[in-house]
Hints:
Layout: E1 2-5, H1 11-19, H2 36-47, E2 51-58, E3 61-74, H3 77-80, E4 82-91, H4 100-114, E5 117-122, H5 129-137
Parallel strand pairs: 4-5
Antiparallel strand pairs: 1-2, 2-3, 3-4
Amino acid sequence: MNFRRATKNDLPFIVKMMANDKLGKLRENDQEPLPETYYEAFDLINSDPNQELIVVENENDPEILATFQLTFIQYLSYQGKLRAQIENVFVREDLRGQGIGQKMFEWAIERAKERNAHLLQLTSDKQRPRALKFYKDLGFIASHEGMKLHF
């Protein structure tokens, strides 16, 4: 598998993958052409050295299999160490259960270690029990109670 930074040309496929999800259907808009807000967000992500929007491809096939975003967050706690956060983890629906997610997390963990992060954290909606089990099977521990306030 090939892991690379996403390009603007990848955005329609990434957004389609996000919208092809039970929760994504409620919040994403994969119309063509894509709303400009996605391109504006991509430009901000792409210009930030602490953000990495990644796509996964097969070695000899440029079709995108999966995507995720890594964010590196500088904290004062843990003696000023860096944290990595993985979000927007999506594997194409027709490819789930084939080990792609496992390889994505192996890659993300190594990338976080390369950046000297002391941990990799994530959040997942409680409406995704299969995802929560997958993360627990990878060794993630539900050590905190997360909360959100939507505006």
